[in-house]
Amino acid sequence: MGGGNLLEGNLVFNMVRETQDHGTFNSWDRQPFVVERGGQSTYVPLLNELRGNFLINDFNPQEAIDNDDGSCYYESHHNFLPFSTGGLKNDFGVRLTHPLAPPTHPSSS
Predict the structure, then answer these.
(1) Whole-angstrom Cα distance, residue 7 to residue 19?
(2) How many domains does the chain have?
(3) pLDDT tens digits along 54-92
(4) Are 61 and 22 in contact (CB under 8 A)?
């Protein structure tokens, strides 16, 4: 709930086969939460990051990464998204960069 999550180096496939309303990765963000950071209370979460993932959904998905319903504080980059109709969905303040770049190994950067 306080953010700061990393989703990296995953192969995810054939998710959301019953509907076309979501992506292989789907986030929702409707309610702020108070978190303690550095001894102080805040409603502002840390950035969540999705990088270097291989997300396949060839069952006609809406998009591969669906930051839905007010999702914010996500940064998605260097993910490989084949067969995705829309690729990425971004509601509020989501940073999406290099969406179709193949994943790279950290030692090669």
Answers:
(1) 24
(2) 1
(3) 888 776 666 778 877 777 788 888 888 877 666 666 555
(4) yes
Nearest to 83 by CA among 56, 45, 107, 106: 56
Please state the pTM of the whole predicted model: 0.73
Smallest Cα–Cα separation from 57: which of 9, 103, 23? Answer: 23
First-to-last alpha carbon distance for the chain, in angstroms, is 30
C-alpha–C-alpha distance, residues 39 and 23, integer Å: 36
The pLDDT value recorded for residue 102 is 43
Give CA–CA dist 23/21, Å, rounded.
Answer: 7
Domain that holds residue 46: 6-108
Give dist(CA 43, CA 31) in Å, integer: 10
